[in-house]
Specification:
The complex is a heterodimer of chains A (about 350) and B (about 130). Chain A has three domains: about 1-105, no CATH class; about 135-200, Helix Hairpins, CATH 1.10.287; about 210-355, 2-Layer Sandwich (Heat Shock Protein 90). Chain A is about 50% helix and about 20% strand. Chain A has helices spanning about 40-50, 60-65, 65-75, 95-105, 110-170, 175-200, 215-230, 250-270, 300, 320-330; strands spanning about 1-5, 10, 10-20, 25-30, 85, 90-95, 210, 235-240, 245-250, 270-280, 285-290, 335-340, 345-355. In chain A, the strands form four sheets. In chain A, strands 8-10-11-13-12 form a five-stranded mixed beta sheet. In chain A, strands 1, 2, 3 and 4 form a four-stranded antiparallel beta sheet that branches. In chain A, a hairpin with a 3-residue loop joins strand 12 and strand 13 (about 345-355). The longest helix of chain A is centred in the middle third of the chain and has 61 residues, at about 110-170. The radius of gyration of chain A is 31 Å and the shape is globular. A five-stranded parallel beta sheet of chain B has the order 2-1-3-4-5, with helices on both faces. In chain B, helix 2 runs parallel beside helix 3 (about 65-75). Chain B contains five helices and five strands. Chain B has about 130 residues and is of the alpha/beta class. Chain B has helices spanning about 15-25, 35-45, 65-75, 90-95, 110-125, and strands at about 5-10, 30-35, 50-55, 80-85, 100-105. Classes of the chains: A alpha+beta (about 350), B alpha/beta (about 130). The interface of A and B includes residues 146, 147 and 148 of A.
C-alpha cells in the first residue's frame, strides 16, 4: 500500500490513498473548518477503506505503529491548525504526532503544508493576544471612566452649590468652606486612582538583589501589627529558617506582601488571626502564604479578584487595583500568586518565587 | 401654586446624593435621598414619588435590579438612571425595564433638572392631569 501525500489546495487538504495495484481506495477531502464538525460517520466509512491489503509491504508500521494504528482505525486530519480527528470524534492537537505521520507518509508536501500551518498558527496566536489586549484595554477604560466620573460629578455639584451660596446666601461661609474641602478630597481621590494606574502601567524593570525573605516579611508584618492589636487580630508567623537564597526586587515584593496583609486585615475586621508562613518547595521555589480567618471570597468572585477595578468594597473605599497590581508584580518577578478561600472561614494567598540556583 | 415633583435620589455616594439634594431643593423640588436600593424600596410604600434618580453601581442591589423592583411596586414612577459608567448593554436593559432616561455622571444640574421636569410632565399626562404649565 502506498499512501500518497495530498496537495494543499487553497483552504483544503487532500489525502489520497492508493492500493498496491495503484488503484485509488479512498480519498478524504477534508475541509479545514468543516471536518471537525462533520461528525465521524463519513470519516469512519473512509477509514474502513483505509485498511491495507494483507501481505503488503508495510515496513513503516514497525517504526510508527501507534500513528499507523490511528491512521488505519480512524482517519487523520492534517488541517492548518494541525489536529487529528479520530473515528471516535475526538479532536487532538498533534504537532509531534502529525510530524511523525508526515515522516511515515514521507511526503515533502505534507511537511511543507505543516510548516505553513504552523506559521499560520503563530500568526493567529499573535492576533489572539492582540485582541485579548484590546479587550483588556476596553475593560480598563470602562473601569477608569466609572471610578473617575464619580468624584468629578461630586466636584461639579460642589462647585454649583458654592455658586448658589455665593449668589443667594453669601453669609454661609462655613458651608462654602465645607464644599471647598470636599472638592480637595475628591481631587485627591482622582489623583490616587491615576497614580495607581500609572504605577500599574509603568514598565519599570525590577532591580534584582539578594533578599532575606523572612526579614522582609517580618518588616511588613510589623507595619500592620499595631493596628491588628487594636482590633484583636493575632498575627502569627511561621517562618522556615533555612530558606534558599532569593534574588528579587525587594520594594516590589514588599508592596505585594503589604497589600496581602492589608487585605487580610480588612477581611478579618475584628477578632481573628492572620497567619504568615514562609517555606521552600525543594530548592526551586520560596513560598510566602498569607492566611486569614476573615469573611472569605464567594466562589463566583474568585476568578475576578485579580481583574483591574474589581472590588466589592463600597464606593470610594477600594479602587480594585491592589490585587491586580500584585498579580502584575509577581509576573514581573517571575513568580506566581494564587488564592484559595472559603466563605465564612477565610482566605489564603500564596506567593511562589523562583529561588536562586 | 407651582407643582413640584417629588424626587428620590438613590446613590451610595453620600456626598453626591446630599449635595444634589440641596441643589434640587433650592430649585423648588421636594427631595429625599437614600444610600441603597433596599432603603429606596422600603420608602416607596409610604411615599408617592414622581421621579427616582437611580445610581447603577451600588453594593448589594444594583440600580438595574432595583429598577425592576420599583416598576413592580409602582409602574407609574419615572426612573432616571444616573451612572458614571457608560455601557450600551446597561442602557438597553434600562429601557427594556421601563426606565425613562439615562444620564451620565458628571452632568450639569440644569440638564438633570430639565430631564426631571420632562419625566414629571409625562407622568402627569399619563395620569390625565395634563402637563404642568
Amino acid at each position: 500500500m502506498k499512501i500518497r501525500g495530498g496537495q494543499p489546495r487553497g483552504r483544503r487538504l487532500q489525502l489520497g490513498v492508493r492500493g498496491r495495484d495503484g488503484g485509488a481506495i479512498s480519498a478524504l477531502n477534508i475541509n479545514r473548518t468543516g471536518a471537525p464538525m462533520s461528525g465521524s460517520e463519513p470519516l469512519d466509512r473512509a477509514a474502513s477503506s483505509l485498511v491495507p491489503p494483507t501481505g503488503g509491504k508495510t515496513r513503516a508500521k514497525d517504526s510508527f505503529d501507534p500513528i499507523r494504528h490511528q491512521l488505519l482505525t480512524g482517519a487523520i486530519l492534517l488541517a492548518t491548525t494541525i489536529v487529528a480527528l479520530f473515528s471516535s470524534g475526538a479532536v487532538l492537537a498533534v504537532c509531534g504526532a502529525a510530524l511523525a505521520a508526515v515522516h511515515w507518509l514521507s511526503g515533502r508536501r505534507w511537511a511543507r503544508a505543516i510548516e505553513k500551518a504552523r506559521e499560520e498558527k503563530r500568526f493567529l496566536d499573535e492576533q489572539l493576544i492582540q485582541s485579548q489586549k484590546l479587550a483588556a484595554i476596553g475593560e480598563l477604560s470602562a473601569g477608569i471612566g466609572h471610578e473617575i466620573n464619580n468624584p468629578i460629578a461630586i466636584i461639579g455639584q460642589e462647585a454649583e452649590w458654592m455658586r448658589h451660596l455665593l449668589q443667594e446666601e453669601p453669609g454661609k461661609t462655613e458651608e462654602i468652606s465645607d464644599s471647598l474641602r470636599e472638592i480637595v478630597r475628591q481631587v485627591e481621590r482622582c489623583r490616587d486612582i491615576t497614580q495607581k494606574l500609572l504605577n500599574f502601567a509603568r514598565k519599570m524593570e525590577p532591580v534584582f538583589q539578594g533578599v532575606d525573605v523572612n526579614r522582609l516579611v517580618d518588616d511588613m508584618a510589623k507595619l500592620v501589627e499595631k493596628e491588628a492589636k487594636l482590633r484583636s487580630i493575632r498575627v502569627i508567623r511561621i517562618f522556615q529558617s533555612d530558606l534558599p537564597a532569593l534574588f528579587t526586587d525587594p520594594p516590589l515584593l514588599r508592596q505585594v506582601v503589604l497589600n496581602l496583609l492589608n487585605n487580610a486585615m480588612h477581611a478579618v475586621g475584628e477578632k481573628g488571626a492572620i497567619t504568615i508562613t514562609t517555606s521552600a518547595s525543594g530548592r526551586d521555589f520560596v513560598n510566602i502564604v498569607v492566611s486569614d480567618t476573615g469573611c472569605g471570597i464567594p466562589k463566583e468572585n474568585l476568578g475576578r479578584i485579580f481583574d483591574p477595578f474589581f472590588t466589592t468594597k463600597p464606593q470610594g473605599q477600594g479602587t480594585g487595583l491592589g490585587l491586580s497590581m500584585c498579580h502584575g508584580i509577581m509576573d514581573r518577578l517571575g513568580g506566581r500568586i494564587s488564592v484559595s478561600s472559603e466563605v465564612g472561614k477565610g482566605s489564603s494567598f500564596s506567593l511562589a518565587l523562583p529561588a536562586d540556583k | 401654586m407651582p407643582l413640584s415633583p417629588k424626587v428620590l435620589i438613590v446613590d451610595d455616594e453620600e456626598r453626591f446624593r446630599t449635595t444634589l439634594g440641596k441643589l434640587l431643593t433650592v430649585k423648588g423640588l421636594q427631595v429625599d435621598n437614600v444610600g441603597s436600593a433596599r432603603e429606596a424600596l422600603a420608602l416607596l410604600g409610604e411615599n408617592n414619588y414622581d421621579v427616582i434618580l437611580l445610581d447603577v453601581k451600588m453594593p448589594e442591589m444594583s440600580g438595574v435590579e432595583a429598577l425592576a423592583e420599583i416598576k413592580k411596586i409602582n409602574s407609574g414612577i419615572e426612573v432616571i438612571i444616573l451612572t458614571g459608567h457608560a455601557s450600551v448593554d446597561v442602557a438597553m436593559e434600562i429601557m427594556k425595564l421601563g426606565g425613562y432616561d439615562y444620564l451620565l455622571k458628571p452632568c450639569p444640574v440644569e440638564e438633570l433638572l430639565a430631564k426631571i421636569e420632562t419625566a414629571y410632565d409625562r407622568k402627569r399626562e399619563r395620569e390625565g392631569r395634563g402637563p404642568k404649565l
